[in-house]
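Morning, I've got a small favour to ask if you have a moment. It would help a lot if you went through both lines with me. I owe you a coffee for this, so here goes:
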Amino acid sequence: MLAAGKGTRCYPLTYLYPKLMLQVGGLPLLEYMISWFAGAPEIEKLCIVMNHNSPVEDVVKYIERRGPWLEKILDLFNQLGYRVEYTNPDLAIEVIQAGGRGTGGDLRSAIETITKEDKLDEDFIVCNADYVIMRELPDGDLCPQLGLTGIVQYHRACKQALGTAMTVALVPVSREDAGRFGVAHTCSLNGFHFVRGFVEKPDIESISHDPLINAGVYVIDRDFIISHFDKYLPDGPETSLERTLLSELATEPMPALAAYPLELYRWFDVGTLEQLVKVNICVAREGKAKVSSLLPLML
């Protein structure tokens, strides 16, 4: 989980505390992100990559103390009106500090740290750390957990069928919002989708209905990325995961970047104070929260 940004767009709330500890409906943004991995039994460990200059103590303390409170955490999600299941309650979580050298540089630093200290012998998931999503379950309930198992299974199937090296999750947004993110151009082959390029800040008149944008969630082939470190994750300042890895893979002659379209009820990129306010309002409204019974979670 890449969380090495400085959080400047959320000043003054992030002067003293990491953005991960900002609350959404009384729960830290971090818990929404952890819930994704705590709901995927096949994931062994979650590494949170933070900036060397960030106040990481708050995040470390929360991780260390949340264990006995899991039942209360799930109850708070329920009071907010969302169904959450932690099928991976023993998930190991570790904070890794990086230099804040861009998303690509921080990913490279994290991989190097992990391979020195531990084994990294399988494909792995990478995600940004500031999302809140809502997924509609078959019975109509809303869930803030992303279905990581489905993304992993698609990644494995597409890699076997087309030889892709990486999978990126895509989410449909309105034409007005697409201009802020850049739009993915996708193609299909043998029943699988793959990305052929990204159009940054496109003209709204040229955007199709429900354009797909990068949702900030990836599955990466371990052997491929380690054997191509210097090409796709060069060791330099401000190395961008989006520009030096995704965009380059999208232009390879053969399909290299698989596309996994997400079916979500809501998707929020909590990047600014305005977006933080909006997601709090939406979480309370959509989940029909029992506001009178909610209290901030203090560990």
